[in-house]
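README, section 4: Worked example with a bound small molecule

Sections 1 through 3 covered apo chains. Here we extend the same pipeline to holo records, where the ligand is supplied as SMILES alongside the sequence. The molecule in this example is magnesium ion. Nothing else about the input changes; the structure line simply encodes the ligand pose together with the chain.
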Amino acid sequence: MQNQTPVPDAKAFETQTLTGRASADAVAEDSIPVVPLKHPVRLVLAVVLIMVALSAAWDVAVNQRYHWDVVLSYLFAPQILAGAGLTIVLTVVSMSVGIALGTVLAIMRLSANPILSTISRGYIWFFRGTPLLVQLIFWYNIAALYPVIAFGLPFGGPSMILGSANVLITPLGAALLGLSLNEAAYMAEIIRGGIGSVDKGQYDAARALGMSGGKLMNRVILPQAMRVVLPPTGNQVISMLKGTSLVSVLAISDLLYSAQIIYANNYQTIPLLIVASLWYLLMTTVLSFFQNKLERRYGRGFDSAPRRSRKSKTRTA
Amino acid sequence: MTTAMVEARGVRKNFGVIEILKGIDLRVEKGSVTCLIGPSGSGKTTFLRCINHLEKVAAGRLYVNEHLVGYAERNGKLYEMKERQTARSRLNAGMVFQRFNLFPHMTVLENIIEAPVHVLGRPRKEVVVEAQALLDRVGLGDRGSSYPQELSGGQQQRIAIARALAMKPQLMLFDEPTSALDPELVGEVLDVMKALAEAGMTMVVVTHELGFARQVADQVIFMDGGVVVESGPPEEVLDNPQQERTKAFLSKVL
Ligand SMILES: Nc1ncnc2c1ncn2[C@@H]1O[C@H](COP(=O)(O)OP(=O)(O)OP(=O)(O)O)[C@@H](O)[C@H]1O
Ligand SMILES: [Mg+2]
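The generated complex, written as structure tokens:
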């Protein structure tokens, strides 16, 4: 449970600490000179890979057929910027609703009440089991199934009519509905895993201190679950960001659809796809940056060797 | 006879078809120290958890400070309490666990002030001052800003004691507080507990530290197979046991 900080390159890590320890011992025991282990194969491989990457980059840069001039001229085109804005809105709204609803579904799923957990299980089963594209088209065409949307008692009881489905469910509304409800199913499973990773003793300790219900969840369990929930959630946000491009089937001018409209007119397909990709790359880079910050924030108290502890250890020693 | 802090009459508890507690009768006087001893699986932890209603009692009556635990008695019927009420009633007792169970995402100070501030709703400033005094009392006055993981087991357990004390409980429950510790760290935790006993705290301690029991306990209770086999002052139960099962257990432990 404790040592979950990922080690990016386990081998490098190993050799580092080993040589570190070896040299420390060497100093202690009459300073025997230490020759660090060499990795010739690794070195050659690295050089080859760097060469391949550089030459590929060079080719891309000088190849006239990429039309970098076109890329540059459309990079900040108003339609592209508007499309990028809409993509951000779709992502932020769907993710927020998805996370909120997913949390509720996860808690329901873990509930001792069999009705609640079955409802949650059914929801997750359905929304993960059907293609997102189908769900989007379904919401878009909901007016065909339910011409009028009303609020009322079930089984034909009295109800309050809210309006025509065609008016209420705009293409953007259908997109947000489809993306959010689908995302909630995935987030529910991620959050359930996070909650499940928290030690049972934490519930006992919190209860013994008089906590219950929401307070116990919000103050003790969920902050600890965050550590496990964040990395896969980061993945979800990034796939959502790119997945929003599916809504182009509902004729919503998100980033990709805006690029498509432009190249449908000027036939500069590749340059415009590059423009869109550059924006997607920029957005995912920014997201990864924030993900890192959040992971550090919620990893506090769990790091295997936090700077803070080293300081305090020397102080007490 | 003074009024009891804990009184159990025929307390039973089962997990599924297996009955773990088969009718526990005992009394813990206010201001006294009771040590619960017994072989593994005899139901010591389960009984301690019942006192705090972390487990529901299946039959019998369990009173803490003269209040029935987890139920309200009206018109000859027992009504199960709502979760919130149960949580309130737990405030009488502080609990210390074998595995410390500190909140790893909070600093030591945050661990201690968490419940007074967020459960009792007391002003943070005032609680921080008290928390600092508690930290000094358990000998860790300079560790308030550390995270639990940065502390040794003995230090963590002393923080856990301070965290429970911050709620000003009338009763402290300890479930094998030293058995997850390296031998050289046991003493520091027992010292804190001794000081607490001397200050007059009512304590129920599940322990294998018979030396501690002999020195501090007013009453030792030997449990086996879900019943109280023998109880009395330590010099009787530990040094002159009457029951065969007690004798057998003590000869194995000593
Ligand atoms: N939540 C539970 N569900 C099912 N069985 C349980 C549960 N908790 C405890 N038990 C069982 O109840 C019995 C008594 O457990 P308990 O933890 O009270 O014993 P103990 O006297 O504290 O033992 P130890 O000295 O090993 O801590 C054990 O056989 C255990 O397997
Ligand atoms: Mg136990």
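What to look for in the output: The two ends of chain A are 27 Å apart (CA to CA). Chain A is about 75% helix and 5% strand.

Section 5 describes how to batch many such records.
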